[in-house]
Amino acid sequence: MDFNMKKLASDAGIFFTRAVQFTEEKFGQAEKTELDAHFESLLARADSTKNWTEKILRQTEVLLQPNPSARVEEFLYEKLDRKVPSRVANGELLAQYMAEAASELGPTTPYGKTLIKVAEAEKRLGAAERDFIHTASINFLTPLRNFLEGDWKTISKERRLLQNRRLDLDASKARLKKAKAAEAKATCEGDTVPDFQETRPRNYILSASASATLEDTCRPPSWAEWKEDYPGGWRRPCFFLVPLNPSLTLARGCLSLPKDGKLWNDEVDKAEQELRVAQTEFDRQAEVTRLLLEGISSTHVNHLRCLHEFVESQTTYYAQCYRHMLDLQKQLGRFPGTFVGTTEPTSPPLSSTSPTTAAATMPMGPSVADLAPPGEAALHLEEVAPPASGTRKARVLYDYEAADSSELALLADELITVYSLPGMDPDWLIGERGNKKGKVPVTYLELLS
Would you say the C-alpha torsion 165, 167, 171, 173 has a positive or negative sign? Predict the structure, then answer.
């Protein structure tokens, strides 16, 4: 493996410089370049979008698949890039159990017949649920995941680069400031320049011009010179070089330069050049990051479209469920022998007034025991007169299609007159609309005072 030691050392130095700058900023010992208010608002909006997208994604997954074990299994299959095996819906499993129970308990009994009917409805509900989960996953969950795993990772990467460019810029500003301060101090002290270790960060590397100046004017000391200058023992000075030019002198680790101060001028020029480069790179990275952050608006538009598709799929799902349950209710209503003696409604009421309460408060007309057999029900219902007083108005909540001639078809939001007959099933009332009359289900009505 080919290692580039110069590049490795340079990267390590840059990393250390950024770490020092970041630490000093945290402790308030260094200046920090602040971003403009618009850029900060873009960053805040991007962070908020990411956080809420994660929460919506997780909760939607819970809605579509409440079983946490199943969600973990689907996650593992997705990470392994394998197809998720088909899973039986809860409604389909319930339908299977009901069908098996009807087969064992007797499919010809009223209970067995009802189990079979409910099993068929639950099977259709399970299929509708499966279609809804599949559609919602494709139209809603997938775009949210693509944003978090694609666009957001790109934005995060560019933001980290911008942070590094800002640290480099602030470090360059600090370096230039220290170099100018050292230059001014050297001028005031008669061209005596303090040791470089006192004016630069520990990881600072001299520029090429400064290094060349020292190499041309100084050489390492010999062992004799070392022992002569440091008779107390082995001790490494901070800056110990022997001048080659007689006009240079070495005293107490400080190097006296000629009066032109060329070394510090080169260092200031080098720091200014580094600052210009760092400023250019920072501005370029800030513009790239700004464009990506402004693209969050397009992400919102895309998520809005996906949200509409999710609502449409959910509406379709619940409409299918309502239709299947409505058909089931009609089928169960054709088995009057099954509900003889039933005091509770077969389904929860859609209005605040319960069916039993509505039936109990309705004025009573002639008994249905006096009516003819079912084949002549329509004729006798027409002959039944409403009670002399106390009939109530009701508003129709949903459309209802009459199953036979004894029932009255309903349209949503229309007003009809209703009353009860002694001996009727509590889930049904007699409804009148003009010259038409027939049985209507209580769950489709809102009784008005």
Answer: positive
